[in-house]
Specification:
By secondary structure, this protein is mostly helical. The protein is built from six helices and no strands. Helices cover 83% and strands 0% of the residues.
């Protein structure tokens, strides 16, 4: 019975396809043909009928997952709530930096040199 089903799957989809399902079952610690058959049926329902199609679909899914998780991270970071006082403080620092002249900077550097020595 199992041998006939196995041969049927191999005849319809090829031995590489069936071997890939068996390999994945073993990687998951499942040693029954029922599990292998479940993998094969799931692939067929998804329209996957070759190892090449399977690998291409897995790559596409992994890329979609990565880009989705990255975009979720970016969106969460962009939507961070910042208090008004923090923004005001940053604005004041920018204005303060703009008001400092070259002469003031030179004077401050001279004063710092005196204290360092």
């Amino acid at each position: 019975m199992i041998a006939e089903e196995l041969l049927s799957w191999i005849y319809e989809f090829g031995d590489d396809f069936v071997m890939e399902a068996m390999k994945r079952a073993l990687e998951r610690g499942k040693f029954t043909f029922g599990y292998v058959k479940g993998i094969l049926n799931a692939w067929v329902k998804q329209g996957i009928q070759s190892v090449e199609t399977l690998k291409a679909k897995e790559i596409a899914m992994n890329n979609a997952r990565r880009s989705n998780s990255n975009s979720q991270y970016r969106n969460a970071r962009n939507q961070e709530v910042v208090p008004d006082w923090f923004l005001e403080r940053k604005r004041k620092k920018r204005i303060h930096k703009q008001n400092v002249s070259e002469e003031d900077i030179v004077k401050m550097e001279e004063i710092l040199k005196k204290y360092k020595n």
